[in-house]
Write a structure and sequence with these properties.
alpha+beta; OB fold (Dihydrolipoamide Acetyltransferase, E2P); DNA polymerase, domain 1; 3 domains; 5-stranded mixed beta barrel; globular
Amino acid sequence: MIAFVRGEVATVGLTSAVLDVGGVGIELQCAPGTLAGLRRGEQATLSSSLVVREDSLTLFGFVDADERSLFELVQTASGVGPKLAQAMLAVLRPDDLRRAVADEDVKTLTRVPGIGQKGAQRIILELKDRIGAPGTVATLPGETPSAGAAWRPQVHEGLVGLGWSAKEADKAVDAVAPQAGATPDVAALLRAALRSLSKA
């Protein structure tokens, strides 16, 4: 996984930015709020998430690791892909999104283009126990998550990257959740998830 990208801002477009990293221009798809904080010619560091499809590799950029963690987590809900996950974070700040899910606030979630009432209810049902309380902040790149569900999207993405389906990855993540404890070890949880999948 490409956890973050650091370099000089080469261009800022309507939906993406290009960072010059050692002479290589890396394009990141970003929400408007992220793009607004970038200035051409200045150094920038963006947390990132690589989305792999059969016909494309798309890198999404975020202000911080907390946004990236939520972006990856909301995609574990049925019917939420990377574009919709990005739209959710474009409309709602991380804590507003956590609060909307925790409070079962369908009205707030339906402010996001592409989310109807049924979709909002499904997102709430699937994420309520995993998204964390408002004020929960993911750690910076390279640090071990301190608490909450920040490890879940990382293990899930690792399993999918190794060829397991999203559904199989969901089951494996749920299976190893009791082992997470207060300070989850993502690498150990990923190994445990792989063991649970190989037994199945």
